[in-house]
Design brief:
112 residues; 2 domains; 10% strand
Length: 112
């Protein structure tokens, strides 16, 4: 039977953050709880893979939100910058309209 593994993708700056987090430590001050879950944390790296590209996309988006607010301009600028940097380029080029639509719908849910 395969050993289960859990991962958390962190899109902020790593700083001094741990490589593994646990449910009891993060939410219950280390208390003894019935179900303990540990997850490996994935941060931005020098790797050339889809997960790293997603993390970079999120960081660019966060920068654009700071600049333009949670607007369509922030979304379109994020897409433009990422395509220029070859981040998710093929996906963003073929699905740009859908990405803008999804991101704007997320805005409505987050800001409601």
């Amino acid at each position: 039977m395969p050993k289960p593994e859990l991962y958390v993708i962190f899109t902020g700056n790593k700083g001094r953050k741990p490589d593994t987090i646990s449910l009891s430590q993060e939410f219950f001050n280390g208390a003894d709880i019935d179900i303990e879950i540990k997850a490996k944390v994935i941060y931005e790296s020098d790797s050339d893979n889809i997960i790293n590209e997603y993390i970079v996309f999120c960081k660019v988006f966060n920068e654009q939100i700071k600049r333009h607010g949670m607007t369509k301009q922030a979304v379109t600028e994020t897409i433009r910058i990422c395509k220029d940097r070859n981040i998710l380029k093929q996906y963003l080029s073929s699905k740009e309209v859908e990405v803008v639509t999804i991101m704007m719908k997320l805005k409505k849910k987050l800001c409601s």
